[in-house]
Amino acid sequence: ARQFLQQLVSALTYLREGKAVPIIHRDIKPENILFVKNKSTGTLTLKLADFGWAVQHVPTSKRTTLCGTPEYLPPEVCLADRYSGAFDIWTLGVLMYEMLVGTTPFAVREDELEDDEDIQQAIVDKILSTKVIPVPDYFSDEARDLVLRLMDRNPSTRILLEEVARHPFLTGEPMPVESEDGPSA
């Protein structure tokens, strides 16, 4: 999971800061991630696909278009609030959770619902009613911290993309130990 998240963060960083126009993808999910195998080394390289919902990222403006895939939507989109590039950060958190758990935190029992509209509404209701993401006990401290910061319900306090790239879960460094006096070196 770490290697693929590192590559996904690199792809998002390129979209935001590369030579091209800065982009918000708005539909990051497993179906939109491709892997290319290097024939000589056998290594897999992640490629982000399907830019159908992508838009230019203007840091000073916020979007209102309802788009994306229900299980990956951030709360601000579910509430029809204005949103920014923090959209992709939330989605990265859902994807990380899914890689480590095997399902998104907002999966619903589709067999108990009548149609696609009911399923979508149940997912949105679950996103909006989940105040704290249920993180399994087997998550490392680093994984727990990153997934909770990626999925901060408040987009203005959600971790920034450049912070994600330096996070201990992705760098392999241990989390700083905090004492009663605050973080230690």
From TrEMBL:
Instruction: Note whether Nucleotide-binding occurs among the keywords.
Output: yes
Residues annotated as binding ATP: 31-32, 50
Give TM segment ranges: none
Task: List each copy of the Protein kinase domain by range.
Answer: 1-170
Give the lineage.
Answer: Eukaryota, Sar, Stramenopiles, Bigyra, Opalozoa
Active site positions, chain numbering: 27 (proton acceptor)
Q: Which keywords fit this entry according to its UniProt record? A: ATP-binding, Kinase, Nucleotide-binding, Serine/threonine-protein kinase, Transferase
* Native source organism of the sequence: Cafeteria roenbergensis (Marine flagellate)
Question: What protein does this entry describe?
Answer: Protein kinase domain-containing protein
Molecular function (GO) terms listed?
Answer: ATP binding; protein serine/threonine kinase activity
Q: Where is this cross-link: Glycyl lysine isopeptide (Lys-Gly) (interchain with G-Cter in SUMO2)?
A: 29
Q: Name one Pfam family in it.
A: Pkinase
Entry annotated with the keyword Secreted: no
- Highest taxon listed in the record's lineage: Eukaryota
